[in-house]
Amino acid sequence: MHDINDMLLFAQVVKARSFSGAAARLGISKSRVSKSVARLEATLGVRLLQRSTRRLSLTEVGEAYFEHCERIADELARADSTIGSLHQTPRGRLRFSAPVAFSTLHVAPALADFMLQYPELSVDMTISDRLVNLVDEGYDLALRIAPEPGGNLVARRLAPIRRKICASPAYLARWGVPELPEDLARHNCLDYTYLTTQGFWHLQGPAGDISVPVSGSLRINDDEALSQAVLGGLGLALLPTFIIGSELQAGRLVEVLPGYVPVERFIYAVHLPNRHLPLKVRAFIDFLLRRFGDEPYWDQPGERLWLGLSR
């Protein structure tokens, strides 16, 4: 089998027209260059160079072989240049998955700004609450909402995901405002069935974590649909602020039991362990960190912040 290093050294000798010239260009010894060419000729079983005390010339076989070696050297140089440019500017296709509600409300609206910032990137986004397999399904990264990222993936925390117990002003005017967690037993508590804690709301009170049994006339597996039922005055629900932030800010929903904040989760960007993280992935994670952060706009007052116009 041909040693590609020997082939590249041979091409350098031809270009420099001498062993010493090639050695000087490459910063190695002349004897190393000479041994490399001799080894290549022995492997091929032909003479590539005619050597004399005054000049170096190619044999007929050597001339034909040099064309192939030079082509390989050019391809390697172009490959190095391509890799270098990819490390300087995000480009290519970025493939990721993201949970349905969060990506619809916050990731998809952010893509225009991201792609205008990096015009050489294209995006392939899968909206799904399923935990995709990054290796088997060929994803660069995934966005996941969880208390802890878990698994053998590298995780970057992008923003807190907070939940609040809320109801419409009309519902509270009719049924009263609960003052303590045990008051929830007297209310129509609408349950989100996608979580594994159906029938219980896990809260953090002055005395620590508590689990409060709840029941109501509606059970539903989609937070956005659940928020619409709450806006309609049907009952109370424990909803993420990334969905209802604007409704709370506008007064269309009212938070109750603010002293009993539900256990926090977070939105994470997860990717495979990679010593050399692709620039497109790093650029996207950094962009989302700037856009969301520890105090995301949906948890801040003001319609301007909710719309993300200040980002």
UniProtKB/TrEMBL annotation:
Task: Kindly indicate whether the keyword Glycoprotein belongs to this entry.
Answer: no
Give the matching Gene3D superfamilies.
Answer: 3.40.190.290, Winged helix-like DNA-binding domain superfamily/Winged helix DNA-binding domain
Quote the InterPro entries the UniProt record gives: LysR-type_TF_proteobact-type, LysR_HTH_N, LysR_subst-bd, WH-like_DNA-bd_sf, WH_DNA-bd_sf
Q: Which domain of life is it from?
A: Bacteria
- Which Pfam family is one of those matched by this entry? LysR_substrate
Sorted alphabetically, which CDD domains does this protein's record hold? PBP2_CrgA_like
- One MF term in the entry's GO annotations: DNA-binding transcription factor activity
A single GO BP term for this record reads: DNA-templated transcription
Does DNA-binding show up as a keyword for this record?
yes
Instruction: Tell me where in this chain the HTH lysR-type domain is found.
Output: 1-59
- Sorted UniProt keywords: DNA-binding, Transcription, Transcription regulation
Family indicated by similarity: Belongs to the LysR transcriptional regulatory family.
Q: What is this protein called?
A: LysR family transcriptional regulator
Q: From which organism does this entry originate?
A: Azonexus fungiphilus
